[in-house]
Amino acid sequence: MTADTGNRVVVTRRIPGSTIARLDAAFDLDVHDSEDPLEHQALLERVRGSAGVLTMVSDRVDGSFLDAGGDTLRVVSNYAVGFDNIDVPSATEHGVVVTNTPDVLSQATAEFTLGLLLSLVRRVAEGDRVLRRATPWKWSPTWMIGQGLFGGTLGIVGLGRIGREVARLAVAFGMDVIYANLSGEVRDVPYRSVTLDELLATADVVSLHCPLTDDTHHLIGAAELAAMKPGAVLVNTSRGAVVDEPALAHALRDRVIAGAALDVFEREPEVQPELLELENVVLTPHLGSGTDAIREAMGELCLGALSAVLVEGRCPANALNPEAMGRG
Ligand code: DGY
Prior knowledge:
This protein is of the alpha/beta class. It has twelve helices and twelve strands. Strand 9, helix 9 and strand 10 form a beta-alpha-beta unit. The chain starts with 7 loop residues before the first strand and ends in a 16-residue tail after the last helix.
């Protein structure tokens, strides 16, 4: 790769692995080397005059960001597969190419989804809490009975790359898989496509893997939770705002459904306080893609995208709006 120190690239957060050193060798690099996100105004100041920005899911890439980037900004590389934090049409109008990190994190996120699900139905997290609280216990045939996955039906909402990986793992656990895909049936998969209503009425486990869009915002609310089987559980490793959290907290408290496992929240890092009080929910702080190898692979994709646009002058394969290339 040709070094081009005339190109200023901003990285909006500390990231692990070799990515920073490699970016530093290729660009005039400005890293916000912190665990804390930049406030929006500070972010705008930082991106002014930059050619590329490596953003996080917590950075809002809207009209004000793109205006701040101005004529110099040519690429925004989001360190995530989800890009609901980015106004892609507006980026296209500004001639800014947007990229994400597809594929590399599908297996890790799917593994994590199964981990969360097992933790919920086999009461792993709850059992851990019992011991930490020094609750007196002894084994007995009735002690902390859970549910198994074998023979159950998994309903996947959003059969994209991550959803398909979850399906593959669930089959290995002996589950039947059905799916509801909001953008239509998926070809060449061995799973039955159903409507969301049928999925909710049939599945023992409802697992959410759809992107957050206007159509999926609060897709799962009070009515959808009431439509689920009373013994069913909900898993969300997609985006928090796909679920109406207050409605979910009520449904869990009133045992409308049996449980939930959540890795994502609508107002991260805040968690709906009622959820924290409930035993039939497993909560984790957005860990789905968090392994060393996956962070390295995400960094590699971001580096590749920034280099493609800024050094090689070509459109990267992971561009979400290739039509923006050369438009700025
Ligand atoms: C993603 O990639 O969208 C994750 O949620 C952030 O790692």
